[in-house]
Amino acid sequence: MKSKLFDYVERDNLVFHLSGVTKLICFICLTFSVMFSYDIRVILSVMILSLIFFKVSGLEWKQIKLMVIYVIVFLLINFVLTFIFSPQYGVEIYGTKHEIYRFNSRYTITLEQLLYQITKLTKYASVVPLGLIFLLTTNPSELAASMNRIGLNYKAAYALSLTLRYFPDLIRNYQDISLAQQSRGLDLSKKEKLGVRIKNIMNICVPLIFSTLDRIELISNAMDLRGFGKHKKRTWYASKRLKRQDYIAILIAVFVLVGSICISVFINRSRFYNPFI
To answer: Mind telling me which residue stretches traverse the membrane in this protein (predicted)?
Structure first.
């Protein structure tokens, strides 16, 4: 079965009807509100909001499966390494120490360290649905038009659009080359040793790289022949006008961002929420 990772599939729902500019602004505002604050209440609120929009978007599991697995592995490794290298950082931040279990004088599990690490984990986890919604519900051509409308040079915007368009093609090319090589006797199963499998994968990557370079040259020549980059500005076929639903979504995102900053500055008097005082 062909991978659907990074594939854009049009659907008839609220999230897909929003303009690319709207989704870009919402993504920036909500991401910054999470990154700025270490208040777990704010972060969980943004996470719940992003999960609701993720559910409304109707994205399929096969589109995000591989990415979610990588994110979970990254979060677990980050959680463990944070404790290994900074086991008392939570104590330093919150200024108190409530021990739960002591391994030795250096490694002690405390409520403060758990709160810090769980907050840090939820920060990363809450951004993932936002990124997936933004990437998988925005037409690459419209994304380029949206980024150009907010001031990004259209050449850079178009380059990003081409990159997002090429990810699904790259995965499909890898699968096609892999199947062709396996039909010729290349073994990628667990029956082979790890070193042999890595070597066999490299035998797939080499033709994949050359086919990618050929495709890049083909696209570059086609763009040059059509005069791409000759003028300082360009028009966009996929650009959308902002509608009422776009303004409402932007207002919600800005409200969340302002609320996050106000809670940190005026209520917590710090980026960190301290329930131990």
So the answer is: 14-36, 42-59, 66-85, 124-145, 247-267
- The amino acid at residue 71 is V
Residue 100 main-chain phi, psi, to 5 deg: -110, -45
d(CA 106, CA 189): 44
- Which of 131, 174, 105, 136 has the alpha carbon at shortest distance from 9? 136
Going through the chain in order, the beta strands assigned E by DSSP cover 99-102, 108-110
Listed in sequence order, the residues at least 6 apart from 161 whose beta carbon sits closer than 8 Å to its beta carbon are: 140, 141, 143, 144
Query: What's the whole-model pTM score?
Result: 0.78
Instruction: Give me 176's structure tokens.
Output: 């096609």
Res. 7: pLDDT tops 70: no
CB 144 within 8 A of CB 236: yes
Tally of CB atoms within 10 A around 76: 11
Q: Looking at residue 100, what DSSP letter applies?
A: E
Three-state SS for 168? helix
Coil vs helix vs strand at 102: strand
Amino acid at 170: L
Rounded to an integer, what distance in angstroms lies between the CA atom of residue 14 and that of residue 269?
A: 37
β-pairing, 99-102 with 108-110? antiparallel
**DSSP state letter for 277:** -
The span from the CA of 156 to the CA of 147, in Å, is 9
The predicted-structure confidence for 173-190, as pLDDT tens digits, reads as follows: 888 888 888 888 877 777
Taking only the tens place, the pLDDT of each residue in 231-273 is: 888 777 777 778 899 999 999 999 999 999 999 999 998 899 9
Identify the sign of the CA torsion 240, 245, 247, 251.
negative
Q: Is the pLDDT of residue 44 over 70?
A: yes
**Separation CA 133–CA 142 (nearest Å):** 15
| Residue in 245, 257, 252, 253 with CA at minimum distance from that of residue 13 | 245
